[in-house]
From TrEMBL:
This is Methyltransferase. SUPFAM superfamilies: S-adenosyl-L-methionine-dependent methyltransferases (SSF53335). GO terms for biological process: antibiotic biosynthetic process; methylation. CDD domains: AdoMet_MTases. Residues 27-127 form the Methyltransferase type domain. Keywords: Methyltransferase, Transferase. It comes from Streptomyces naganishii JCM 4654. The lineage of its organism: Bacteria, Bacillati, Actinomycetota, Actinomycetes, Kitasatosporales. Pfam families: Methyltransf_11.
Length: 255
């Protein structure tokens, strides 16, 4: 559910910001098992996946090995930490930088974000997927854990489903950070508005599209997107190569 929603939202932004058919240079920081990286490589883009977890790298390489030769040629996997992008790549090397599900594990995210912005060419897109720090009480509250719900107010710390103590980000804080690093917020969405407390597993086939449609609509509609479990923020780097202002994405944008 999360991957499909983020993919749809990301495709909307790419379609609005870049010419149709352009082969984009994509960096996926903390790519995990490579779901989004592989999807973009299949779409014809040149993709670099950066990951430090050896198990995730192994899974991603196995998945990549099963792809046709043309797709394998468009994707490379680099072992490394997202905080060290400057060690591996030159500034301005990418049109798109993804950082999905990473910031919650970083105690001080600002240096990481500044480094990611430096990787973007002018007019490039920075896509962040973060835990929503403004809605941390919702999950325990809906599950009837009143003590945990009360403890969630006034903090950005939480324990995730893996049992790890991590942190969330607030929309206002990230909006300010993106402006400060030269990639101001262009659009944002909510992800997992209705399904954050749903049981694991795939719903019946006849329910999947309805569920996705409901989640997708809620993720772009106030006030629902504000209480989503995750926030998908899209920032755009400065100006395009001609010096003109970066265009607004076609279709709806959400400021």
């Amino acid at each position: 559910m999360r991957q499909e929603l983020v993919a749809r939202q990301l495709d909307e932004q790419l379609a609005g910001l870049f010419p149709v058919g352009r082969r984009l240079r994509v960096l996926d920081v903390g790519m995990g098992q490579g779901t989004q990286a592989l999807r973009l490589a299949r779409a014809g883009h040149e993709v670099t996946g950066l990951e430090r977890d050896e198990k995730m790298i192994s899974v991603a390489r196995e998945a990549l090995a099963a792809e046709p030769e043309g797709i394998r040629a468009r994707m490379r996997i680099v072992e490394g930490d997202g905080r060290d992008t400057g060690v591996h790549f030159l500034p301005g090397s990418f049109d798109v930088v993804l950082c999905h599900g990473v910031l919650m594990y970083v105690e001080e995210p600002d240096p990481l974000l500044a480094g990611l912005a430096r990787m973007l060419a002018p007019g490039g897109l920075l896509s962040l997927l973060v835990r929503n720090g403004d809605a941390l009480a919702l999950r325990p509250g809906l599950m009837g854990d009143w003590a945990a719900a009360l403890d969630s107010f006034g903090t950005t710390a939480y324990r995730n489903r893996l049992g790890l103590d991590v942190r969330a980000d607030r929309l206002a804080d990230l909006t300010a950070t993106l402006a400060g690093i030269g990639a101001p917020l262009h659009a944002w969405y909510g992800v997992r508005v209705f399904t954050d407390t749903a049981a694991d597993g795939t719903p019946p086939d006849d329910d999947v599209e309805l569920l996705l449609a409901a989640e997708e609509r809620a993720g772009r509609t106030d006030p629902y997107r504000s209480v989503a479990a995750l926030l998908h923020l899209c920032g755009v780097r400065g100006q395009d190569r001609s010096g003109a202002s970066v265009p607004r994405a076609r279709g709806r944008t959400f400021g």
